[in-house]
Amino acid sequence: MMHRKWGLGALGLATAVGAATWLSPIEPLEAKNQLSGKWVVASVTTTVAKVPVVGKIYAKTNTVVLHDLEQDGDRLRGGGTLCRLDIDSGSKFVDTKLPEKFKKALPPPYFDGVVTEKGGTTTVRTGRRLVVMGARLKKPAKDALPQDAEDDRVVDQDRDGNPGVTISIDGIVTGDIHVATRSWTRFLGKVKGDDEIGGKVYFDQEQSILSTTSSMLENAPETKPVPGKSWFRMIRVSDDTTCGDARRLTDDWFE
Q1: Which element (helix H / strand E) includes 100?
Q2: Where are the domains of the chain?
Q3: Is 73 helix (H, G, I), strand (E, B) or coil?
Q4: 16 pLDDT band (50/70/90 cuts)?
């Protein structure tokens, strides 16, 4: 049995699938400032871990989603396509990889925002959207994640024959970890001109290691979110923009 609240592969998965759950706006945006259209939404969530001998390691989860958004009054929302999701482990000794089956198991991306205008500044904010992977919980926001692969609540969500969802590790230690995860993400940003929005990403994440293919992966370091190094940027693009275009457009944003 393995008990790990936080792990090496912990992810801000809600970043990849959008955010929802709203408070009423303070002051609705005027109709003339329509934000409807196709948008490339890129985001980075950063975590920090203290590793013996090495010290602090900052890991980044990079996400790109192509969204079709419609503004209706003060709401900006719409579905999208996941174009990129990968992890920069922050160390040359470790490479964390998300298998394609993992990515396909994620909920479809969805953006749900409230647009407000105050003092000449237009703001877009999203609420928290909770994402649980690898487990079926009666109370997704409150129930403890399963800590054992034999727990009845564990599901093989990526359908690879292993409990939970699988994350692959390569480097000085190579193998797979099978995990249950819970995460949320929300955006708070400002409209910059007619075709750009950008700001901060706030998030939290929890992970339980259910099993591993190497005993060396059982003792993953505790990680913590770093909001100051987490951000999002949105650019409105033409209707014929593809995921390939979105990746090329945002490549240098992550450098």
Answers
A1: helix 100-105
A2: 14-250
A3: coil
A4: low
